[in-house]
Predict the structure.
Amino acid sequence: MRTRHVLYITIAFALSAGLASAQTKPVGGFEQLKTLAGNWEGTTSEGVTAHVSYELVSGGTALLERLQGGNGSEMVTVYTADGNRVAVTHYCNAGNQPQMRTAPITGETKELSFAFVRATNLASADAGHMDHLVVTLQDKDHFTQAWTWKEKGKTRTHVFRFARKK
């Protein structure tokens, strides 16, 4: 009886370890985003200077972005793996928190396109919020972000071009 009990416990541990490793399997797109860790400077499509920094947090399971535009205000965005997708929550100066995610990613990619899923603290669907984000990884020292703002059914996109600070 005792041997059978030990066997069941051993099997349970083996199965739970296998499930845990399946849940933490890295997603290609997220692994690529991790390479952004560090400090970057660039300009917006309007020619305004911008700074962004990336830091791996939560044991490397999340990438924390701090973006500062020319007006000195800071916005925070957190990127995480979500199965075979990458998810993002953007903590906006508008006071809402849009959540977006990519389509399933099966391998390496140069472009991650995040589509709006939902938002917290959004007064209505017509209230202004970030609705789309495209991150394009040109090479290890250059990338762009295209943020799309949506308000009352109309959109406008702001592009940021960044180079790694040496």
